[in-house]
Specification:
single chain; about 200 residues; three-stranded mixed β-sheet; about 70% helix; globular; binds zinc ion
Length: about 200
């Protein structure tokens, strides 16, 4: 993908936030950092026939096999996600960014397990959970998060990630050894949280 297209995609994805970077003339540093991270992740994703870009949150887009990764500040949702991970796979210890990325890849790899009608049902349930979340107490919110993580498609995606990490320790270590410094450099150069 050429740089022009990549920059366009970044601009589309980050909208106003990106615009503030254009305004502060930090665009080049920003784009350079993102491009570096994209290159590392895309190289890793090649064998899976998936690709990535930065987005407002971690996500997987079935329609074009695209994974969005995010620099959003870890929130209570991330905390619950890591707690859930510790429950189902206590042997897996890693950065939330890495497991989130592999979880989205897990959606790409396990999507075939579900019928279209099941996907629809999952989406409906998730939507209703999101609505409930807006008025939920702390305890209810925690419960909703854990219910979400244990929806069949979410559970399978996480278990795919867990098993991938268990069975490909060297590959994962190599990926993280490249990715972590690139992410840290991005944070350092941009002094921001992309949320
Ligand atoms: Zn998911």
């Amino acid at each position: 993908m050429n740089e022009y297209v990549m920059n366009y995609i970044i601009e589309e994805q980050l909208g106003e936030y990106y615009q503030s970077y254009v305004d502060t003339q930090k665009k080049d540093v920003f784009v350079k950092g993102i491009n570096k991270i994209n290159t590392i992740i895309n190289k890793f994703l090649e064998e899976f026939d998936a690709w990535c870009g930065v987005g407002p949150e971690f996500a997987y887009w079935t329609c074009d096999s695209k994974i969005d990764y995010s620099f959003a500040t870890p929130n209570i949702g991330t905390q619950y996600f890591m707690e859930n991970l510790a429950n189902i796979a206590p042997d897996i210890k890693c950065d939330p960014f890495l497991i989130s990325l592999l979880h989205e890849l897990g959606h790409h790899e396990t999507g075939h397990m579900f019928e279209e009608v099941e996907d629809l049902l999952f989406r409906k349930r998730k939507e209703s959970m999101a609505v409930k979340l807006t008025t939920a107490s702390e305890e209810e919110a925690r419960d909703l998060h854990f219910k979400y993580f244990n929806m069949p498609d979410e559970y399978e995606a996480t278990m795919w990630a867990v098993n991938y990490m268990r069975n490909n320790t060297e590959k994962v270590a190599k990926l993280w050894a490249e990715l972590q410094p690139a992410i840290q450099e991005f944070y350092k150069n941009n002094e921001v949280e992309v949320a």
